[in-house]
Amino acid sequence: MSGYLATGGRRDPFLPHLLEAIRRADRIDLAVAFIKSSGLALIFDALADALQFRTARLRILTSDYLDVTEPQALRRLMLLGERGADIRVFESGDQSFHLKAYITIQTQDGREVWGCAFVGSSNISRTALTDGLEWNYRVDRVGDSESTGGGPLNQICAEFESLIVHPRVCRLDDAWIDGYDERRSKLRHLPVFPDWDEPEAPRPMPNEVQLEALAALDATRAAGYRRGLVVMATGLGKTFLAAFDSERMSPARLLFVAHREEILLQAESSFQLVQPGRRVGRYTGERKDADVDLLFASVQTLGQSRHLERFAPDHFEYVVVDEFHHAAAPTYRRLLGHFRPRFLLGLTATPERTDQSDILSLCDDNLVYGRNLFDGVTLGLLCRFRYYGIYDETVDYQEIPWRNGRFDPEALSSKLATLGRARHALAHWQEKGQSRTLAFCVSRRHADFMAERFRKEGIRASAVYQGSSLDRSAALEQLERGDLQVIFSVDLFNEGVDLPAIDTVMMLRPTESKVLFLQQLGRGLRRAPDKDHLVVLDFIGNHKGFLNKPQALFDVGSGYAALADFARKARNGDLPLPPGCFATYDLAIIDFLARLQGRGPTSDYQALRESLGRRPTVAEFYRSGSSMLELRRLHGQWFALLLDQDDLDTQETRCLERQADFLREVETTAMTRSFKAVLLESLLDHDGFRQPLSVEELAEHARTVFQRRRRFIPDLRTDLQDLDDAKAGQWLRYWRANPINAWTGGNRSGQSRAWFEIREGRFLPTFYVAGEDLDSFQSMVRELVDYRFAAYEPRLTKASTGEEASERTEVQSTESARVLPFSRPTTATPARVELPYYPDLRIACGHFRRGRGDSEQRCAFADQGYGRLDPARDFVARAVGHSMDGGSRPIHDGDYLLLERIAPTHAGTLDGQVVAVERHDAGEDQYLLRRIIKTADGRYRLKANHPDYPEIEADEEMRPLARLRAVVDPVDILDLASLS
């Protein structure tokens, strides 16, 4: 046994002594008179790590003596209680309570092998633990020499055991804190007591990006949206954003969902700082709170049906789903389908561009706000970086087995933990690295090997992972102080931890996930004093598994052609970067990317599958820029391609064999409006293939789909667009006349058969789906419906006002004939104005004809009496055919047509006007020019000028695209060459 005195002050602060003891112990007992938030923050991570990584026993006893302990500190102690700590409070009453004792014990195989205790004057406050003059006497024990004796440490431990069960001691809970907070707040003056007036930490305030996002969230709710997605890069504060936004809404109960314990821990702390008076609880495998204000839940637990059933759909008024890029998984879908909050906020730092269609559909197609990593750097919220893509020349990754989208872990670890590769990494680190490095390794073996090799070169390095001799919080402290230069880590620093001191990130392992890659990069992007920039040393090998890195950092598409184009830009130094940033790739990497060539839909699919590390959905394939028309030409339909790639399971294969015709119909059915997809989604949401719905139920469920997918509301008849006020009878009649009529064969245009029927008032398929196929069948149909919504979305852009269209940022595929890229109005002189001209958008003057609007050119007009021309609404296309060649104003084959887009919100009357009509059939857009005639019964007919062409009755598959303003005289076009 030995002892010494820690005297405090700047010469000998107490905090390092205490942290060293805590990090060594697996039994920790603290008894202090009061606790301040400022002091608890200094030891919180060490205590949390002890609970999480060493399963330590932690007991903390404090008091309400003189009401000095802060309620906020007590609420944060409750976070430790959720992780297994035993938190108690001494109710002092008329009894003084001045204890300051810290006991730490280390055991091995149930036997005490080390222990120490501090008894003195330091409570848990910043001043007492850092620069205050505080005397704390340390008592040590080595081995078990005093295990049966009555030495000082044993006596201290015994007294703690006696005190922890004192009649005045009770377990801390939210109700106790609420009562304490109320009576404490009534005090006008706190008594003079050491550190009593130490200021509390200021509450966080929104930064520039968060303020913008908060305004966008307010606006989206004002527009009627109940769900929304926010995309914010790591480091910009998306968790705090959720805390700020939910505070504005003041929900009685909030649910925060994530998939990792680390995220939940960080989120609880963030919310508690913003909303200190709220009761916090946890719903995980080990703990299931319910009666709390803020519930933080593991999706793996709460996503199970038996747990969801404990909560009514409206139990939570505000729901946050973090890491929303995972939301397409079944557990998330089940949870999102169950709850109906006032508002649901999806958060992600790193959405896959190709994922957005899927995850956006779960957020009601409502991308509220987005800021990527480059935005953060440009705004000065993240630090600048210098990125080095280094060819991993010592490893042939083609030799490492690749299964299910990832390398075999054992084989990979063996290939990476070699002397040659260590020397390669060391050379680049010595040349480019800075003073505080975090290196990501693939395994414990790899981390230990790298740390040892660096230490042999005189570099202060350590391996840190769960169970390592150096724990995470201690390693970070040593790195910040300069005691360590490099931390080689395995899975402890990917997310949920702020590391502002890191100035170099070394990526020594492949990361099959783009999300993981950006999370690791983000670990070093936090700003810190005296930190000018981050150095990134990224080791990239000769394997397709590395393609996700340029895709993630530079938002490169998933196709091989996109990667080859990226390689060209990298070679030419044309990569887009924020100011003050730098990126370079070794030529061997650029050559590897340049050799990749796309070979059609199959190659695009394979590239996307490798990029995502899983089977892509059809919406993701469409969003990636691949051609659905070419896919169907070669394979017939989406699931046939998956079958060819051996990517369907047994049940899915059986469904494709039995239901191929219907699946193709869903994939290609004519859909000028969103109604058919809305009906199918209504059916799927309520298990309508298993339990048929009445027509009335189906119509009402469709109304809820529109309430979520508000961007499709303009498809509805004007008097029904106010969904809350639309009369049930009118809504039902409208829904019967449109998609129900279409799906039941009432409108055979473009449809070979009736796929559904109404029998005894219920909406039923006309085909049989076996019970054992239902789950797979409905999942396959839902995937196709998600695609139809994704493919339909650009059509909304075309139908919106010009300014709205120019500001939309949806990713558009190279196939997007549907997307007319109208631009914002430009300033023009009175004598000249430029309009978009689409040479491939042929307006048929005959029968419906396929056209393309993805090859915009510009043409300059002289001011020759066409009226005010608006480049955001007006455009030029060619007439094809002779059906309008007649009457007083004939339109001839080849004429140039000046057309004005029709916005559904202010189309006005079309009766008697010449209009370009659009319909979508078999995956193609088709266009026809006709005069619109409204009949006495309120229907519309399309009339040609030429008598040889019969009238056509308009149906719901047709949409007015643009009204004819004039046939243009070519002499009025100044830049006629662009039209030739």
Automatic annotation (TrEMBL):
Signal peptide feature range: none
GO function terms (MF aspect): ATP binding; ATP hydrolysis activity; DNA binding; helicase activity
Q: What residue stretches are annotated with the Helicase C-terminal domain?
A: 421-574
Q: Which InterPro entries match?
A: ATP-dep_Helicase, Helicase/UvrB_N, Helicase_ATP-bd, Helicase_C-like, LexA-like, LexA/Signal_pep-like_sf, P-loop_NTPase, Peptidase_S24_S26A/B/C
Start and end residues of each Helicase ATP-binding domain: 219-369
Q: Name one Pfam family in it.
A: Helicase_C
Which keywords annotate this record?
ATP-binding, Helicase, Hydrolase, Nucleotide-binding
Q: What is this protein called?
A: Superfamily II DNA or RNA helicase
Q: Which organism is it from?
A: Thiocapsa roseopersicina
Source organism lineage?
A: Bacteria, Pseudomonadati, Pseudomonadota, Gammaproteobacteria, Chromatiales
